[in-house]
Amino acid sequence: MKTARLVLLCLSFWPFNSLADTVPVGIAPPESAPEGCVDTADGNFTIGTLALSAKRKRESASEAVNGTFVLNLQDGVLRDDSGRIGSIVANYQFQFDGPPPQAGAIYTGGFSVCANNSLALGGSTVWYRCTSGNFMNIYDRNVAPQCVAANIIV
């Protein structure tokens, strides 16, 4: 009996449980992309944000992410120039990780580029820029009072 408990205790520390946390690439929201959007883009592109309330000059990709941020889109999966996968993680933040995607990621696919040069996730082109200290995070939903609706412009 002591041996069985020792084996169970050892197995609980074994890295097998990390395999269960692996998130597949390509998990998409149930909604289809908006009309005029495609899930594969020719070549690479950069992104920036545009607050929907202001409709002023968009923030450039370098302003948005403090450096050139080059992306590509293939079959709804968004990757940066380092091969990291664009995803919506457990706190609804849009970020790039991996590969593999961050454990607990909600969506790892379902992205599309629309005719109006906006980035969509599922059926929506609306994102939320949320101030966090002296920078902003981007979310797929409104998570706090300081968030403003925005488009991600490609």
From TrEMBL:
<dbReference type="GO" id="GO:0009277">
    <property type="term" value="C:fungal-type cell wall"/>
</dbReference>
<keyword id="KW-0732">Signal</keyword>
<dbReference type="Pfam" id="PF22799">
    <property type="entry name" value="PIR1-like_C"/>
</dbReference>
<feature type="domain" description="Cell wall mannoprotein PIR1-like C-terminal">
    <location>
        <begin position="76"/>
        <end position="148"/>
    </location>
</feature>
<protein>
    <recommendedName>
        <fullName>Cell wall mannoprotein PIR1-like C-terminal domain-containing protein</fullName>
    </recommendedName>
</protein>
<dbReference type="InterPro" id="IPR054508">
    <property type="entry name" value="PIR1-like_C"/>
</dbReference>
<dbReference type="GO" id="GO:0031505">
    <property type="term" value="P:fungal-type cell wall organization"/>
</dbReference>
<dbReference type="GO" id="GO:0005199">
    <property type="term" value="F:structural constituent of cell wall"/>
</dbReference>
<keyword id="KW-0964">Secreted</keyword>
<dbReference type="InterPro" id="IPR051153">
    <property type="entry name" value="Yeast_CWMannoprotein_PIR"/>
</dbReference>
<keyword id="KW-0134">Cell wall</keyword>
<comment type="similarity">
    <text>Belongs to the PIR protein family.</text>
</comment>
<feature type="signal peptide">
    <location>
        <begin position="1"/>
        <end position="20"/>
    </location>
</feature>
